[in-house]
Amino acid sequence: MFFLKYYLLAIYFLQLENYDLGRFVKAFYSRGRSLATKRQSIIWTRKLKIITAIASVIYFGFIILALASVLHPVAVVNVITKIVLGIVLCEILVFVCPFVFCLAVFIFWPFDHAIKSKIVGKARAKLAEVPNLKVIGITGSYGKTTFKEALKTVLEEKYRVLATPENKNTPIGLSRLILDDLGPEFDILIAEMGAYKVGDIK
């Protein structure tokens, strides 16, 4: 069914826009139907899986209820009306898809906020334990990952360098790197930093 394509596109844009709901909705409606190629594939993080599960219950629950009411034997509608209603339903499903994901994000937000605060707090505490570590932050609209890799290659000639992997540049991604991989043996931490809202760089 074609609306499943847009359901997957909603998941893609939600992650691409780092769960910023305003940017997500705008991207979906402005580029969703005309998107030919994706910048990256969906990375199924725990957060994305939970939000998708919540959205799926809402979304497919709505589909089942709508189909049950249209196709119910007692419903006084002829075959042509059912076909027209089915087409209208598919269009509605494409239109409401982003709002279903927005609702799922709102439902999950209190749990997500508590988990993130704990992880970021632990990362800050661990950074404080490595006072001689030099931290280099790289941000900007384009070219962050390329510049980070080039800088890492140059600095590794003389120093022990830890850098964020691939294009992971969110506060939670950086915090996980610090908690999992940072040790006293490193001289420099290169942090690719995506600035999605005020306070992210800090």
Write the layout of secondary structure elements.
Layout: H1 2-16, H2 21-31, H3 46-71, H4 79-128, E1 134-138, H5 144-155, E2 161-163, H6 171-181, E3 188-192
Parallel strand pairs: 1-3, 2-3
Helix pairs in contact: 1-2, 1-4, 3-4, 4-6
Structure characterization notes:
By secondary structure, this protein is mostly helical. It has six helices and three strands, in the order ααααβαβαβ. Helix 6 (171-181) links the parallel strand 2 and strand 3 (188-192). Helix 1 runs parallel beside helix 4 and helix 4 (79-128) packs across helix 6 (171-181). The radius of gyration is 22 Å and the shape is elongated. The two termini are 44 Å apart.
Give the CA-based shape: elongated
Uncertain runs: none
* Class computed from helices, strands and strand pairing: mainly alpha
Taken in chain order, the helices and strands follow as: HHHHEHEHE
Mean pLDDT: 85
Number of separate strands:
3
Rg (C-alpha, Å): 22 Å
Largest sheet: 3 strands, parallel
Strand line-up across the major sheet: 1-3-2
Feature tags:
202 residues; mainly alpha; 3-stranded parallel β-sheet; 3 strands
Question: Could you write a compact summary of the structure shown?
Answer:
It is built from 6 helices and 3 strands, in the order ααααβαβαβ. By secondary structure, it is mainly alpha-helical. α1 runs parallel beside α4.
